[in-house]
Every structure is written in structure tokens, then in C-alpha cells.
Amino acid sequence: MSSTVIVTIISLSLLAAVSAIILYFVAQKFHVVEDPRIDDVQAALPAANCGGCGYAGCRNFAEALVAAETFDGLNCPVGGNEVMKSIAGMLGKTAGEADPSVAVLLCNGTPQYRPKTTRYDGVVSCQIQHNLYLGETNCSYGCLGDGDCVKACGFDAIMIDSETMLPVISDDKCVACGACVKSCPRHLIELRKKAKKDRKIYVACSNCDKGAVAIKACKVACIACNKCLKVCEFGAITIEKNRAYIDAKKCTFCRKCVAECSTHSIMEVNFPPRKPKVETEMLTING
Amino acid sequence: MIYKTSHTFPKGGIHPPEYKLTQNVPIKPLPVPKSVIIPLSQHIGAASAPVVAKGDHVKTGQVIAAANGFVSSNIHSSVSGVVSKIDTVIDASGYRQSAIFIDVQGDEWIDSIDRSVSVISEIELAPEQIIEKCRELGIVGLGGATFPSHVKLAVPKDKKCSILIINGVECEPYLTSDHRLMLEKGEETLIGIKILMKALHVEKAMVGIESNKPDAIEHLKELSKRFDGISIHSLTVKYPQGAEKQLIKTLTNREVPSGKLPIETGAVVHNVATAYAVYEAVQKNKPLIERVVTITGKSLSAPGNYLVRIGSPVNSLIEAAGGLPDDTGKIVSGGPMMGKALQNTGIPTSKGMSGIILFPASESIRGETGPCIRCAKCIAACPMNLEPHLLANASMKAMFERTESERITDCVECGSCSYTCPAGRPLLDYIRLGKSTVIKMARERNLK
């Protein structure tokens, strides 16, 4: 009985020893030389694997960073400038300053402003609905509300508001990886430069139809009336394809365009409430 | 009769209830409406460019929009009157597209059109002239896909066309416009087929008609005795027999290779309604300004077949058929299997609209969707030898490379899989998503 145990132990130990020797030489022979810095860089990255940098995952990005001569055009939106700086220090290079940005939805067509004209009962997918027809409302550019962006977001930053039926993007959770931007078949999500206190001024409409058609479909559509263009002192506003666009880099958050907008399609977010004095001024301008 | 060998394509297909409510209702001309909206993209290919401006007076049959490239088509005014505006309108495609709005005044036709009822059987034009005529007079495929006919007739030099196939199958339930046309305009249609044969330099034409239209088969068989080379074939009823590839397989036993065009088999397929339109264009100089549209539905008081001026709003058809029933839940343009729901009743009729079907609300709602039980009914039903459940699931999970290698672009979107699925899964919705994505991917790859 005991001899069986001893024979087994000895034979298995011998087998293990022989295998270990073979494996040792094989590992020597087929050793893959890899820059050890790749592992360090990968460890410094957020490990979100979101693809926001343009690479398939954090490992690919780390390889690209180690191989790159300069950091131009390489940026991890999730880690931001801090992470990029620490990696640059690690690799002995300098990192450029990238503006942190955040995703915003360029549509404000809530059911209250944009009445439904048909009912869609197909598959819950914006892409499928978009391929089929212009959607439940008469606006062929607006949000379809089926939440392709919600599914695409890996950071739980987007949810569909049950009242407005539009996606709401959380400024705290959004890392500007751009997954939602790619998922939206109507290109309604834009990554905009983050301002202090998360303030934002943007045109929440993407309708390229002529003003008369747009306003019929949605009460808060941009009708390209040019009022904002005239009032802007900083040249931040351009009008193309029957809709206004505010350049976040030039905008100084003076809010004059918001007051001027006749269809309230320009949104101001995270601003303190206007003083009553401003209100009366606004009224006189409009009146 | 004991057993008759079935004459149909071998693999797949379904048997939906037919509901051919209007098969005995003769074609009536629809009164010219007060105003028409003529969309500028009624065909596959580039949208036509308008050649009239606001305020212009136009006559019936006059060119109002010119073809914009080779795969495009001229568009003619279907009424006489004044162009009120050129603007966008939501059309049958589901999107807002450019269109010409015309306020009708009288009904004055241009002089070159022969409006007599006499049948002209002598074909005087040479093949090239016939193709030119089709191009000039805006003839497109009237089966639904609206592919410009002159493109189809111009066979590439390295390919040879040996047979013309005429599609009189009309396998979609409800629709009867082709059926009535074959019965009432049989002789003209056969002359149209002869014209197409001459343009293609072929000696043989086969007309495929499903056996649920025995009167049309009988009528055309009788008439075809006077026309050399045209044979009429009675086919076993099965959907989607009217699909181009399935019809070629049924009639010639030739198979269109994956990813290739039907001309690879030496066959060119045209619809019977197209043959009639070609007859009118070549022999009577009449552009494609009207077509037969079936207006039908279980709740309609007077469903029928109407000869409609293109651009008439759908509601003028519904009024002619007895008004919109209260229980209407969905209005579909085309057949119930492949047609598309319309957003409103103001949508204009276009060259590709073969029927308008009004479904009661109870039949317009999709049922509950269950999980796939892997019963393989969709595989048995697929006429293209695909695996719909696999394609749909792969598309749903965004595995588009996999769908491409599983030949998703071969799908003809007939909807047999969705129809037959016992779990009511939206197979075709996902397959269409995958197919459009794969086509986009392939196009981007070709650009590189």
C-alpha cells in the first residue's frame, strides 16, 4: 500500500522536473522581448478600455504611447491631463494640455414641444428606426429616444428621462470617450469643452430644414433667424444648413444669444438664475 | 387531376393568406385631384433635377424634372396646371424629400402623346431607339423597386442576354393591380413584351403567373398564340415567387450567383406593368405619368383598382374607395409583406406604389416577442438559403463581420422569416440593420 504512494510521488516528481527543464529551455528560446514600460504605462491608465483614445483598449494605447515620439494627438479622455502628465514623466516626454470635454445632446424636442404624429412599435433601437423613417415626430433630425447612446455608454453616464423622453448626460460621470457620439445615427451628441462649474451654452437643435418646416415639427427648433449671430460680439456663432452653432472655444458665456433666441433653442446650463433686472431688459429687447 | 408537379422555386417560401379582395374589380381611372405633389426621387439612383420653376404653366406629359446621371430618370407632369412651389414633403420613403407641387387647371396634354384607344402592334423603332425612348419617357420598374428600365435594357457588352422573363407573379397578398392589368390590357402588355424582346435582341420571353390567377393565364395564353416566342407559365402559388432571383430559378432553373446580378444567368426580368408602360411609351409616346394602384383593406367599403395620376395624394384614393374606415391602424404602401407604413394620408403616390392597404388597428400591432427556441422554421422559410436567426442575432450583437461572412447581403428582405417565427421575433428588422451596416462597411473598404 505505502509503496504505491511512494512510487506515485517519485514518478510524478520526476515528470514535473523533466517538464520544468523542457519548459525552461523553451521559454528561453521563444522569449518575446517586450518593452517593460508598456506594463507600467498600462498600469497608470484608467483601465476603462472605452476606446475614447481611438485605440481598441488601454493596452493598445499604452503600446502606442511607448512607441510614439511625441504625444501629439494622443490623449486619454478618461484620465485627463493628470494621467497624461504622469505617463509623460514616466517616459521622459511632455504631454500637451487637452481641454476636458463633456457630451451634450443637440436636441431639446420633448413631447411637449415636438408632438408625436405616428407610433413606432418596432425594435427598440435608434439605428433601426432611423433606417426606417423619420421617427414618431415630424422632425427628421431629432432624437428618436430609443437609447442607443445609453447602451453604448460604458460609464453609466446616460439615462433616458421618462418625462422628456430624451437622454440626460451626467456631467460628473461622462468621461468624453465618444462612444455615444458614434452610436447616435443622427449625430446628435457632441463633445464640448468643459467650462468652470460645468457651465454650457449650446444650440440644442440639429434640424437642417428651412425655418418654417422646422418650427412646424418642433416649437424649440432653431430656425436660423440669425438673431444670435448678430448679437454675438465674439464671433462664436456660425449658421450653416439652417441651424446655428456656437463654438465652445470662442464663447465667453455672456448669455446674450440665449436671451435673444426667439425659439428658445439655445440652452444655458448650470448658470445661476438671472437677476430680475436682466429679465426686464430681455423683455424690452424682445418686445 | 391527380397530382401535378409543382412549378416553383425549390427552397423556402411561405403561404400567407391571399386576401385578393379586388381581383374582380375592373380598373377605373381616378379623378384628377385639385393638386398633385410629384416627388423628385421616385426611382433608385440620383434624384432628378427640376427643370420648371414656381409659377410655370405645365401640360400633362411635359418633362418637369430631368435625370441626374445615368442611373436616374426623367419625371413628367401627370396633370396640367401651375407649379405652385418646389419644396420638401414627407413621401413614401419615410423621409422629407424634394417634390414639385402643381395646382391642377383643366387637363391639357402635350400634342406628341397619342391618346387614341387603338392598339398599335407594329414595332417601328430600332433597339437603341427603344432604349432611348424608355429613358426619355421616364420608364422605371413598376414592380416596386423602381429601377430605371433603360439601365436594365442596356446589357453590358461582356454579358449576353438570352431570355426575357416577365414577372406577372404578384405573390404579395392583397395586391391585384398586375392581375387586372393582364386581364384588361393583355394585348398591349404582350406588345410591350415584344418591344422589350427587340430591345434586348432575344427570341424568347417567359411570362410567369401564379396559378391563383387562372383567368389571366387563360387570357394571355389565348392572346400569346399570335406572338412568337412568348410563353405563359402557370406557377405554383408561393411567396416570394415574384422576387427576381426566385422567379429566374423557377422558370429557367438557373441560379443567380451570390453577390452577382441576374444578367449573370443570361436573364433580364421585367414586371408586366413595366411592359405595359413600355408599350405606351414606345407606341403611344406616353410618359410614365399614371399607373394602376390597388386600394384595399378589410374595412374599406369599396376597395378597387385605380388608374392613378402619379402625385395624387393617397387620401384621394382612400376617398374613392369609400373613405377612411374608423378602425384604421396602419396604412401600408406596397404589399403587406414588403411594403412600408405611411406617416400620413397626404403622401403622394409615386411610380413604385403598386398598392395601398388599410389595416385595422387590431392587425397593426406587433405581438409579444419571445426567446428564440431554435426551431429552425426561419431557416426552412428562407428562399435565399440563409440562416435568419443567426444573422439577426449577430446583427443585434453588432457582429457585422460575421454577418458578412454569412452572406447577409444576399437577403432579399422578403420577410418570410419574421412571418414564420413562432416566437414573433423581429428577425428582418435586425437583418436589415446588419445588411445596411455591411453595405456601408463594404463601400468604405472600396474607397480605401
Task: Summarize the model shown.
The complex is a heterodimer of chains A (287) and B (448). Chain A has helices at 2-29, 36-44, 58-67, 80-91, 126-132, 148-152, 179-183, 211-217, 227-231, 256-260, 276-286, and strands spanning 101-105, 158-160, 167-169, 189-193, 200-203, 237-240, 243-246, 266-269.
Descriptive key words:
heterodimer, A: 287 residues, alpha+beta, Alpha-Beta Plaits, 2 domains, two-stranded antiparallel ribbon, 11 helices, 8 strands, B: 448 residues, alpha/beta, Ubiquitin-like (UB roll), four-stranded antiparallel β-sheet
Major pleated sheet of chain A: 2 strands, antiparallel
CATH class of the largest domain in chain A: Alpha Beta
Largest sheet of chain B: 6 strands, mixed
CATH class of the largest domain in chain B: Alpha Beta
Describe the structure.
The complex is a heterodimer of chains A (287) and B (448). With 287 residues, chain A is of the alpha+beta class. Chain A has two domains: 36-91, 3-methyladenine DNA Glycosylase II, Chain A, domain 3 (Orthogonal Bundle), CATH 1.10.15.40; 101-286, 2-Layer Sandwich (Alpha-Beta Plaits), CATH 3.30.70.20. In chain A, 36% of the residues lie in helices and 11% in strands. Chain A has helices spanning 2-29, 36-44, 58-67, 80-91, 126-132, 148-152, 179-183, 211-217, 227-231, 256-260, 276-286, and strands spanning 101-105, 158-160, 167-169, 189-193, 200-203, 237-240, 243-246, 266-269. Chain A has a two-stranded antiparallel sheet with strand order 1-4. Chain A has a two-stranded antiparallel sheet with strand order 2-3. In chain A, strand 2 (158-160) and strand 3 form a beta hairpin. In chain A, helix 2 packs across helix 3 and helix 2 (36-44) runs antiparallel to helix 4 (80-91). The radius of gyration of chain A is 28 Å and the shape is elongated. By secondary structure, chain B is of the alpha/beta class. Chain B folds into three domains: 30-113 and 287-362, Ubiquitin-like (UB roll); 127-284, 3-Layer(aba) Sandwich (Rossmann fold); 377-447, no CATH class. Chain B has helices at 127-136, 149-153, 177-184, 186-200, 214-224, 244-252, 272-284, 314-320, 361-364, 377-381, 388-396, 400-405, 416-420, 427-447, and strands at residues 27-29, 35-39, 49-50, 57-58, 63-66, 75-76, 81-90, 96-104, 163-167, 205-210, 230-235, 267-271, 290-296, 304-309, 328-333, 340-341, 355-360. In chain B, the strands form four sheets. Chain B has a six-stranded mixed sheet. The termini of chain B are far apart. The chains are: A alpha+beta (287), B alpha/beta (448). Chains A and B meet through helix 5 of A and strand 16 and helix 14 of B.
